[in-house]
Predict the 3D structure of the following.
Amino acid sequence: MKGPRGFTLLEVTVSVTIICILAAILFPVFARAREKARQTRCLTNLQQIGLALSMYARDHAGHFPPTNDDLTPLLGRYLPDAEVLRCPSRHDESRRRASEPGTAQQWKTPTVDYFYRAGFCDDDDPNTLLVCDSEVQRHNDGGNTLWTDGHGKWLSSPAYTAPPGSGVDLWEPIIKERKEYVPQPSPTPAMPGAPKGGGPP
């Protein structure tokens, strides 16, 4: 009685070849799917930043934080999780550091993976770019963006890098005329018996 027949060298070679071909086809698909998931998480981060900016503006006469690339004024009161400032597709250790921590007792100096453009208000043109990925080709040859009206979207690399005057109003927003916001000190209560109006009685 003969025993079970083993695999021939040709059969093994064909099987290995098929597996390698399938792997070569599927691995890039899986990689793109993982990156797409990270891109979606990044856009969610920007939308959370947009909500925090909106709350900040309501408390500051419609003005967003005044310093370029500094989102730390949002930390704590408006943005409880500093991890939102980090893009899930950024893995290296060269992230830009924010200029200062939010609250010394609660926060280490955070790293920020997004560019923030200061000088705008919540009633500026909704097509004004406010926050964007700090790298142009971070997500599938493009990057995520956040606009002054709070909506976020992905832009391809050519649109992302279009220079001023090219017909893409990405870097030339419409800014309404407005007075500069200056925080006002709390009024000092008048002393008892003091004359009203500041003049002589």
Remarks:
- The CA atoms of residues 86 and 113 lie 5 Å apart.
